[in-house]
Specification:
Keywords: Membrane, Transmembrane, Transmembrane helix. Pfam families: SpoVAC_SpoVAEB. Helices cover 82% and strands 0% of the residues. It contains six helices and no strands. The N and C termini lie far apart (43 Å).
Length: 119
């Protein structure tokens, strides 16, 4: 039960901070998205993001910084095993499952639901 609470608190805190940034600044959503992934890469490279994952579980791994952390960890691992080429292949190998799942389930939802454009 504590895992669920901590996941909610960590993930909720991330969402709260981003929502405040969206509401109080004129920073575009694209810049926020890239900044969150980059922040996850930086924190993951220095093993700081591991502390968030230890306490926040899915609340830390599911948001965009968690994706950045996955990129960093898999790239570092691949560079250690394959050398410089791992800098180009590590992120792709490490995040392929999540990206494939999001494309697959997005396609399934597009088939099931009748989406409409705003306007």
């Amino acid at each position: 039960m504590l895992d669920y609470i901590m996941s909610f608190l960590v993930g909720g805190a991330m969402c709260l901070i981003v929502q405040i940034i969206i509401d109080k600044t004129s920073i575009t959503p694209g810049i926020i998205l890239v900044s969150l992934v980059t922040l996850g890469v930086i924190l993951g490279a220095f093993n700081i993001y591991d502390v968030l994952i230890r306490y926040g579980k899915a609340g830390a791994t599911v948001p965009l910084p968690g994706f950045g952390n996955s990129l960093a960890k898999s790239t570092i691992k691949e560079v250690k095993s394959s050398g410089l080429i791992g800098a180009f292949t590590g992120g792709i190998k490490g995040t392929a499952g999540g990206i494939t799942a999001s494309i697959f389930f997005g396609y399934i939802m597009a088939l099931i639901f009748n989406s409409k454009t705003k306007g």
